[in-house]
Amino acid sequence: MLRQIFTLSFVLIVFFLASAQSNDYTAVDQYALNAPDESSQSLYTLANYLKGNGKFSERDKARSIYTWITHNIRYNHSVIEQKLLGTRENTLMQQPENVLAQRNAVCEGYANLYKSLANLMGLSAEIVTGKVRREDGVIPEIGHAWIAIRLAGEWSLSDPTWGAGYYDPEAEIHFPPSDDLYFLVASATMIRDHYPYDPVWQLNRYPMTQAQWETWDLLSPAPQSTSTLPFFYADTIMHMNLLDTLQRTLNTCARILRFNPNDDFALTQLGLKMYEQGLVSMVEIYQHLFSLESSPRAQMDTVRYFQQLQLVEQYFARSWTYLHAVKNERLQIIQQQMQPLKYLQAELIFVRGHVHYTQLSRYSRENLNNLSQSNVQATLRRIQLECERATNSYQQALNLYAQSTEEAIQKKRAEIVFFLARCFYLNTISHLNGSANRSSLGEESLAANLAAIVRGKNALLSMKQSIDASAGFSESEGINEMRKDYPLLMAKLLANESLTRHDLVSLRYRMVFDNPLPFLESNFSTALEGYRDAERRAVEGLKILSTSPNKSERQTVMQFLNAGGGLANIQIGAYQAQVAFKLHEKLVKNPSLSVKDKPEALSRIQKAQDAFVRAKPFLEKSGSNSNRMLIDLQSREAKLEELKKWWSGR
After folding, report:
1. Which segment of 367-381, 485-499, 570-584 scores lowest on mean pLDDT?
2. Which range scores top for mean pLDDT: 3-7, 335-339, 428-432?
3. Quick check: 311 and 277 in contact, CB under 8 A?
4. Contact 474/418 with Cβ under 8 angstroms?
5. In the chain, N or C terminus with fewer CB closer than 10 Å?
6. 618, 562 in Cβ contact below 8 A?
7. Burial letters for 423-441: b for 16+ Cβ neighbours within 10 Å, e otherwise?
8. With a threshold of 0.85, does the pTM exceed it?
9. pLDDT, mean of residues 385-398
10. DSSP labels, 174-231
């Protein structure tokens, strides 16, 4: 920061008296100034040189760093002129490695370099930020950074930026460094023109507020906080060093706001740290969920994840509460670089959905063939529930993102659409696998299988709808794969449905088949309609299957679909033929022929023959069992022809 070197006379006197009692740094200064070029190739080589080959005391090391920096690093006025303060570009420029390489910096870079070198030497140093007062009494809006360093158990303050001199652009004159004025300055002296945001760095048991500092005329005794409680800064600093970054920031900002409730800097720092912590926590949760998805045997505590997400939500809410209280226009610009609160809420909802998705993914990997039928249905119910919960969250997140056309938001929407479709996809696969077993199942289990198939179809349709709705902004490889899989999966489900409907109707209406005559106007028709539904599902499946690009599996699925259509028509024919046979038995037992019996029997025989004709092309394409079924069909047709002749002769 631009700093003129001329100071008030009484300040100079104080500094002079202090320096008169100080150590003689002539030898140390000369050593630092004679540092060879190769010693400053990196932070490590420079620190190794400036520590004096093990001969320097802690104070000498601190001085060596101060002297080298103030004589080798120049103030970078272009950062101010180009309004780079507060930008990511400037943050990178002020990193110690870059300051050393470029040999220029603003106050942040000076402090960063000093702290880095001190820490590499084993010294405890901290960066202090705050406001400064120029010699004309003006307090610039732009903040400043300096150094606190602990030597022999005591904390002192240094400002390498102001110690480096300054450049007057109007006079085009560079004023040389001031070696002693801002090195290891007593806190009572430093507070006159340096006010730290964090009161702990006043190094005073009774620190003053910013308002007191700004109105202090420097001629009166230093004002003190109106608080009657002493401030044990040494203990506070010691405690600070035990905290993690988040807790340290929170404690620091709390102290700042205690002394200066409307401090925009503290409010901004607190808001940004809450925002950062929320993002970090949310990413950690997301990454952990990803690892759990690929480790199905690991325990998953969903309650803990939702508690963590609730905490993240509190971080974001508090972040925006602090940031919205900021009055400084320059600091308000920072908010424009952050995600709006509604998008943070959308991201939270997305991660909540991902908790359910992870459970769904883990459940879907269960080998259903190893489970009993009751456990299969229980697993499918859990899968269905997790799918509903996940997709509801994903859809809510999509709705919140829908109003933005930003490229980053569109990418996020594409990601959500993928997982939305993936939920339906996994749900479909699970219900497909869970409904595949029809052997030795009772009516209740077959009905449960049929319900599972319907849920699987609905999930698959939802998958297709979500993919179709995302056309134009979500064309990832995963989305395209699911789009290609749709016809084959739907055909498989329809094959299962056709065969399951056949089995369920056959079991449910067995008594109707055995004795159809009393049920001709009721359950008989219901049974036939059930078989016709089975046939329709087979025909629908064959039509959809024809659009599948997966040729390797298409043949097998086609055989199952044809088997479903063929068996359905055989049963339709068998039911119709059974009526004719039962009328025949009735006539044998009671020779008095009813007027309606003969035409009814012949009509039923014709309908049976028609059904057998429809069954034949299905059976011919139904795979390895087709020959056996076709032989059985021929036998049925022959018996039916004999019965037709018998009835025609009556």
Report:
1. 367-381
2. 428-432
3. no
4. yes
5. C
6. yes
7. bbbbbbbbbbbbbbbeeeb
8. no
9. 94
10. EEPP-TTTTSSB-HHHHTTTEEESSGGGG--SSPPPHHHHHH--SSSPPP--S-SS--
